[in-house]
Every structure is written in C-alpha cells, then in structure tokens.
Amino acid sequence: MSFIEFAKNCSVHDSTEFSPFEIVYGFNTLTSIDLIYLPVDERVSLDGNRKAHMVKTLHESVQQQIKKRNCVYAMKANKGARTCCLSNR
Fold first, then answer.
1. Domain ranges in the chain?
2. pTM over cut 0.70
3. Spatial distance between the Cα atoms of 75 and 63, rounded to a whole number of angstroms
4. Could you count the other beta carbons within 10 Å of the beta carbon of residue 78?
5. How far apart are the first and last CA of the chain?
6. What's the CA angle centered on 48, arms 54 and 59, to 5 degrees?
7. 11 in Cβ contact with 30 (< 8 Å)
8. d(Cα 89, Cα 22) in Å, to the nearest integer?
C-alpha cells in the first residue's frame, strides 16, 4: 500500500502541474530509493532562508496555477448555460 501512496504523491497533477511531494519538499523524486541516496544538502538545507524562499515561491506558483485551472473548469462547466434574471413584480 505504501508504494501506491508514494506513486500518487509523486505523480504530477493536472491542476497544479507539480506533484504533492514536490510542493511539500521542493524537489521531486522518482523512487523511494532516491530519498536514501540524496546528498545531505538536498535532504536538509543548511541555508534555511534560501529553502524557505524557494518553497514559498513554489507555493505561490501552485496557487496561481490552481486559480487558472479553476477558471478554465468554470468556463467549461458554464458553457451554454443560460442566465436567469428574476425581477420583483
């Protein structure tokens, strides 16, 4: 079951264009074995400010992508919908 969870968390999602793993950790991995052999500076950033800025920038990018995809979904869902105007008589 853990392999299924790992596969889901490492697959790129359409709405964000990033994998959940990449959004959280700031880098993507192909297999769980890749995590073991990462250099120390990749696993634990010695420059916390640089890593925090990089992840914050990534989160802003993901947020913009989600907003853009929501607009596209709304346009497709509302395509051909009639507007209804109710008035008091």
1. 2-77
2. no
3. 19
4. 9
5. 61
6. 25
7. no
8. 56
SS3 of residue 89 by DSSP: coil
What is the residue-wise DSSP string for 18-86? S-HHHHHHSS--SSHHHHHT--HHHHS-S-HHHHHHHHHHHHHHHHHHHHHHHHHHHHHHTTTPPP---
Q: What long-range pairs does 60-66 form, CB within 8 A, spacing at least 24?
A: 62/16, 62/17, 62/18, 62/23, 65/15, 65/16, 65/17, 65/18, 66/15, 66/16
The neighbour count for residue 15, using CB atoms within 10 Å, is 13
pLDDT, tens digit (0-9, with 9 covering 90-100), for 23-58: 887 877 766 665 555 555 555 555 778 878 888 898
